[in-house]
Amino acid sequence: MIEVFVNVYFVKVLKGMTVLQDCEIAGVDIPRFCCHSCLSIARNCCICVIEVEKTPKPFASYAMPSLPGLFSLLLSSHSSRRY
Description:
Elements: E1 2-6, E2 9-13, H1 19-26, E3 49-50, E4 59-60, H2 78-81
Antiparallel strand pairs: 1-2, 3-4
GO molecular function, one term: iron-sulfur cluster binding
InterPro entries: 2Fe-2S_ferredoxin-like_sf (IPR036010)
């Protein structure tokens, strides 16, 4: 188990999970279209783009692995809405 910080929540998650899964556990809803458990995953719509603290650009949350330690997802920021 690793501990991550999602907006204002500390969440313990399994190693190997994605940021999208971390947010689901924390109860934070990230809009998405192509990354759903009932669909074969195309992973090309980029609706789930988020900002991760101390990274140079926004990332698709399905592709960002959970990292041990503290990182912050700024889900409501202006720059993440541009993508």
